Amino acid sequence: MKYTRKDLGAYKLHLINTDKFKTIMVRVSFRSPIKKEEITLRNILSNMFMQSSKKYSSKRALTIKAQDLYAADLQTNNSRLGNYINTDFYLTVLNDKYTEKGNFKDSLDFLEEIIFNPDVEDGSFNEEKLDIVKTSCRSALNSIKENTSNYSLVKMFELFDKTSPSSYRMMGYLEDLDKIDGKNLYQHYLEMIKSSLVDIFVIGDINEEEVTKLIVERFAINTLKKQRVPYLLEEKKTRSKKLTDKEQIEGSQSKLAIACTVNGLSQYERNYPLSLFNIIFGGSSDSKLFKVVREENSLCYTIYSVPNKLDNLILIRAGIDKDSYDKCITLIEKCLTDMCKGNFTDSDINMAKEYFNTALEELEDSESKIINNYYMMELIGTDTIEEKREKMNKVTKEEIIKVAKKVSIDTIFLLEGVKNEGN
Amino acid sequence: MKEIKLKGLDLSVYVETLDNGLDVLYVPFVNKKNYFVSYATRYGSETTTFTPVGAKNNIKVPDGIAHFLEHKMFEQEDGTDPFSYFSTSGTGANASTSFDNTQYIFYGTKNFEDNLRFLLRYVNEPYYTDENVEKEKGIIAEEIKMYEDMPDWQCETKLREAIYKVHPRRVDIGGTVPEIMKITKEDLYTCYNNFYSPNNMFLLMVGNFDRFEASKIVHEMLDKITNKEKPEIKKIVEPKEINIKNQTINLPIKVPKIGMGLKVSAEELSDYDDLILDLYLEMLVAICFGPSSEFRERAHNKKIINNFYTDWESISGYKTLLILSSTNDPDDLINEIKQEFKNISINEDAFTRMKKVWIANEVKMADYVDSVEDNIYDDMIRYNKVIPNKVDLIRNLTLKDLNNIISKIDFDNLAVIKFIGKEKD
Fold first, then answer.
1. Segment 267-326 of chain B within 8 Å of chain A by CB
2. How far apart, in whole angstroms, are the C-alpha atoms of residue B344 and residue B289?
3. Which CATH number do you get for residue B163?
4. Which of A184, A254, B346, B371 could join A322 in a cystine, given CB atoms 3.0 to 4.6 angstroms apart?
5. Domain map of chain A by residue range?
6. A355: distance to nearest CA of chain B, Å?
């Protein structure tokens, strides 16, 4: 595997040459500081890309074109990376070796068409198509309570800190949806294209020179941008008293969502001891939470913790019976205290390191994971795979305990399932 | 060991059958770091009435028992926790139960041989006690409740209840809380002893491992296991008619949903090999209801379709198409689908394009160890064999045969459900 990074001024081009895959994957990433009121707009925009373009006037025409390119797969995705919103285009297409000469080039033309030639007239997206996308988005937002696990997280974050980007809902907001029209959507599109930081990745069995030429010809982005907003969110002071709340919903099970602040981490702690802490605490089926709350006390089927590294947070999620709430909280608190006291073994640490190592090795089997690894190196200066392996293996128990002591339970929310018989 | 080349995919499956009847499949990859192993039995939630080997009469075990048994497989007499064991080498492990199969898996990049030994040991050494069976009930009850709270899951279950009159596929894989509360350790041993025997199981290994070493371990661990007779499973005769043709069901949802089930009797289509028939039926749905179909464009422009899901499933004697969608106008969407069924016509271009898409997807799939595992696993469950020439089979599909199959389907044999939100309290 050979990695080349080219600074082309307006964007960075990352080429990863490997013969391990039959496909070529291209990822184009646009990122800019996140604004809450723009999330819905961005969501609608991503959907509009997949609706039509100048050349392909309907979703069906667009789908048929992709199918003709030997099932080229094109997807868009929006995500939040700390203080930034990130919009990705992923194109996965079979290498010409398995199709016909020119298919990759045609696929890049297709990608270019979708990104740079939207279905716009007189400075406005087509209102009729926009209405289709808005209707579908409205339905999704209206169905938000159907996924109780997700909904409990939304409610927990509202409680935790409405103003923090960590609470922003990537699905968007109904109140913002109504404000969107073809014109302001087009303005948002222009802004995304002009002022985002852009990275382009190409991975596969490729000829670097050829691919560089193909990309440069098609991605004529030429505005220079400077953005100096840090990726990492500001730390939020932990409440002196835990904030708890409940809401009732019709359902059989109750969903528990907890935010723990993790303040005062060094970059090293964030990348290594924190990861190990989480695997031992709640990030695996051999974790303390899983063993204590599920296996020993039979209180739940799912329970896990997940670190939001750029947000200085660890989230704990579980599906429980509402009557076990107090017991669950006590046990979760005890698991955390145990971590702080160093009540975990060397074999726990080794297990966590092995998990981490496996994840590093597996990464090399997936095009999207390889790209993401390089993207994180580009964005937040994470280490290379080799450095990661080395540093992780050296993490000590004391370092994990030190991180554990920085974890404090801050907000606890229970979405209480109540059965409403009489249906 | 027999080599079966997967044509066009640069992959081979090596197959051997042990004396006790267990099929073992090895699919080594040269350029991957990870592996994926599955040990499976052709026994799932829908087998609940059978005559155990050596017994005279039928018994009915509680619904959800196959899934319960899967959970309890992780209990070992010496107290070892399989999750912990696999964790020590950073290996992931899991298990899952379906209607007609149960599998135990591990996946990772290291320690393959010891992990394989461990898998073969723990799945072959059940250890059920009154105490550990009781303890599991709380966990599984929470799992069942979790699914109960997922409206999409509920819709699928309700749809099967509407399609099938007697077939146990009507019952959710996990069973119900009252049913699982009845389960005893004796029930579990009965099911284990009848359905976890080598001739009812297979072992599939895909990815980065040495097949010769793997084979040695398989023989060393499994040759000693003798085959058992097969129990007699009660034959279920599912009538052709739809159970409930039309109904409206209230759910705690804000945006309505629809469920439609087309029950196709396989009797009239018995000229076709099962796999070929499945390919044609999937082709029919891909062309008529897939993302590039005219139907989808129409429904999309009318704003009556949100997320649209289709899937064919097979039970003995039938192929059933399940359609589920969220919609702002259930009546209109149902009507559109019915119209589409009435006026099916397949255009040659769409047919040729779809074949191209499928062939490309087969090649793409071969890049990923887990996708290859998934595909071979499905074929083993559905057809009980490795399919070496899927690309050719797709290439050889003809429009004439597809139209012939379409002409034999009764598109009115349909279950229709509207799911509507409850009144706000």
1. 291-294, 296-297, 300-301, 303, 306, 326
2. 11
3. 3.30.830.10
4. A254
5. 2-218, 243-418
6. 4
